[in-house]
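Hi support team,

I've been running sequence recovery on a batch of backbones for a student project. Most finish fine, but this one hangs at about 90% for roughly twenty minutes before it completes. I'm not sure whether the input is malformed or the queue is just slow. I've pasted the structure tokens below so you can try to reproduce it. Let me know if you need the job ID as well.

Thanks,
M.K.
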């Protein structure tokens, strides 16, 4: 082995500056893409969670309102609906007589903080 071959084998032991710069540039691009995907996924999660929480709260209020109507079947037959101190969460409720025994009770909906209308509900009660 001559002297020039041993010198060349010693130099090839590390990375060149160009190789390091290219590696850092490619890893920077991958990092930027990964952070963009992460922030998009996180934003979507928070938006979906807020919508799910709002939907859950609405369903709980609807269930509590139906329970109120079961406990107070005379609600639509009395003219003074303001007398109820323990009002249901969905208020005001509107009554429409269907026939002699049944009343349609409905809630028209309300606006949430994002100005989206929530769908009301209706149910039929029999006194």
């Amino acid at each position: 082995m001559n002297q020039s071959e041993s010198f060349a084998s010693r130099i090839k032991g590390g990375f060149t500056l160009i190789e390091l710069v290219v590696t850092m540039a490619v890893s920077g691009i991958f990092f930027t893409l990964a952070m963009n995907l992460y922030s998009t996924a996180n934003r979507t999660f928070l938006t979906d969670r807020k919508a799910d929480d709002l939907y859950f709260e609405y369903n709980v209020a609807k269930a509590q309102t139906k329970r109120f109507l079961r406990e107070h079947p005379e609600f639509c037959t009395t003219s003074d609906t303001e007398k109820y101190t323990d009002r249901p969460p969905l208020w005001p409720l509107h009554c429409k007589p269907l026939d002699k025994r049944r009343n349609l009770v409905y809630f028209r909906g309300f606006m949430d903080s994002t100005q989206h209308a929530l769908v009301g509900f209706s149910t039929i009660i029999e006194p």
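--
Follow-up from support: It reproduced on our side and the slowdown came from queue contention, not your input. Strands lie at 94-97, 103-107, 121-125. No action needed from you.
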